[in-house]
Amino acid sequence: MEREVLLSIENLTVRYGKDVVLQIGSPVLIEEGDRVGIIGSNGAGKSTLIRSILGLVNYQGSIRTALPMDRIAVHMQSNEYTDSMATKHIMEAILQTKISRNQRLQELIRYFEFEDCLRKRYSKLSGGQKQRFTIIMVMMQDAPLTFYDEVTSGLDFETRQKLVEKMVTWYQQRDASLCIVSHYYEELEQLANKLLILDKGRVIAYGKKEELFRRYCGRAVIILKHSQEKEALFRPYDKLASPAHLIALPCETEEKERELTDLLLTHNMDYTRSTTDIEMIYTNAKKCTENRLDGGER
Amino acid sequence: MNKMISKYMVLYELRNVTGNPFVHIFGVGMPIFMAILITRISISEIPDASVMKMLSTSIFLGIGAMIPMATILMGYAVRQAQDLEKGIPERMRLFGIRNRVTICNRAVSELIYMAAAFGLYFLAGIFFMDLQAPVLSGFVLYAVCMLFFSIMCFMLGHAVAALAKRFSLTYCIVMMVYFACMIFGGMMGISYENMPAAMQAVARLLPVTYFSRDFYAIWTGETYNFVPMIQSYLFFGAASGILLFAALRRR
């Protein structure tokens, strides 16, 4: 069944002064039901992309959507509200409803355990509570397309995990499309089915997670923590690009995988096997682009 | 959000206004305190009761102009600058609340607060000062003039905040305008008659001067030449309007 295109981006250029901070040539289509994880290092253009889609920065090129702007919800990296009143009143004004008369809103407040925060002023909320406050209002918009820009940045591990768990469960039962900017790949493992990888303002890869994995990492990958012993043991084998603390071994065939795992078992070494690891996709997609730009071959 | 003015947004903006303690101090407490204090000092050596009444009423009507200046020009401009600095209008826009909706609801809430402030001011005047009762046209004209002056203060406050963008700079500018209006308007001890010619020329361009210098005549239904006062409104309105236009163009 053909899915409706919610957003199409093509030939997009965003400049800050003389610097080109984002340049997207080939079309990027976000379709109904897509859960797109937008990744890239700091300054890659992730937030700029969201800001240009929302019309908050000037751009050249084409961003098309059939959705009116009020049907696109967004949780920005930083969300500020007035400090003159309790959060409850801000919520009621923005959502144009009374909490006591709105079942759906009450459900969301309970779901995100925000009841005790309703009487507090925004500045008195903790980092996690602040994020939950905006998330509740963003979810109440019930928009077909929602952007989350680094929702969990600055939160401690436990708060982050709890928040993502709640978001995953909430969206599992819904068919809304999401675009999630995050530096935490484990969050995207749970929330995203597609990846848009940006580097220095350019798209280096866009597609389904599994397809990108196959394209850049192969059938499966075995990932080990780096050590001199492992480095020596696997010297004769092909390796994928990986962060310095890891060794990534591609398994193009089942036989190859068996050979590697046998060797690991013999030496009693811990390892992880993956067919969707986002860190591997990102590292290898980036490496592949760098090689292409340098005129090298993967 | 499609409705220009809604109950929830007006309540939200009213909470924003009342959440600023300085608005209560400068917009309600200070005019009442100053009107009572200056009146007491000024009439203490006047033996004639009718002159005392006239002086008290003149001071009362003049100091009333501090209310829109403090609540709207200062209070609104400073709050707007704070909001801009924090990116609140942008956040509201992302929730579908357009700027013009915010401005409309703010205007309504500022008007409600100012009406309440004037209510208290008049109550204090009735209870603590010996005021001359107005003729109906005098009272209506005072309300209408105050309303137009408030609208201009709103435009000027919005423009200053939008152009300055920063809380500190906005605060500095509106404080300067506030004190300039008070000094030139004859509310800081030097009456219009005692000002040097250059100061009088500036004072004639400000609507506040007419509240403190001339409004007693209108209040009591005496014959009055409205032309200079209308000219001051046109000047102040044009200045505020040009600044607002520049601020909207810049955005």
List the helices and strands and how they pair.
The complex is a heterodimer of chains A (298) and B (251).
Chain A: E1 5-16, E2 19-24, E3 28-31, E4 35-39, H1 46-53, E5 60-65, E6 72-75, H2 87-95, H3 103-111, H4 127-140, E7 145-149, H5 157-172, E8 177-181, H6 185-191, E9 194-199, E10 202-208, H7 209-217, E11 220-225, H8 228-233, E12 246-251, H9 254-266, E13 272-274, H10 278-294
Parallel strand pairs in A: 4-8, 4-9, 6-7, 7-8
Antiparallel strand pairs in A: 1-2, 1-3, 1-5, 9-10, 11-12, 11-13
Helix pairs in contact in A: 7-10
Chain B: H1 7-18, H2 21-43, H3 49-63, H4 66-86, H5 88-94, H6 99-128, H7 136-164, H8 167-184, H9 197-203, H10 207-213, H11 215-219, H12 227-250
Helix pairs in contact in B: 1-6, 2-3, 2-4, 2-6, 3-10, 4-6, 4-7, 4-8, 7-8, 7-12
Architecture overview:
The complex is a heterodimer of chains A (298) and B (251). By secondary structure, chain A is an alpha/beta fold. Chain A has two domains: 5-67 and 144-212, P-loop containing nucleotide triphosphate hydrolases (Rossmann fold), CATH 3.40.50; 215-297, 2-Layer Sandwich (Alpha-Beta Plaits), CATH 3.30.70. Helices cover 36% and strands 25% of the residues of chain A. A six-stranded mixed β-sheet of chain A has the order 6-7-8-4-9-10, sandwiched between helices. In chain A, strands 1, 2, 3 and 5 form a four-stranded antiparallel β-sheet that branches. In chain A, helix 7 packs across helix 10. The longest helix of chain A has 17 residues, at 278-294. The radius of gyration of chain A is 22 Å and the shape is globular. Chain B is mainly alpha-helical and 251 residues long. Chain B has one domain (7-250). Helix content of chain B is 79%, strand content 0%. Chain B has helices at 7-18, 21-43, 49-63, 66-86, 88-94, 99-128, 136-164, 167-184, 197-203, 207-213, 215-219, 227-250. Chain B is globular and about 65 Å long. Classes of the chains: A alpha/beta (298), B mainly alpha (251). Chains A and B meet through helix 2 of A and helix 1 and helix 5 of B.
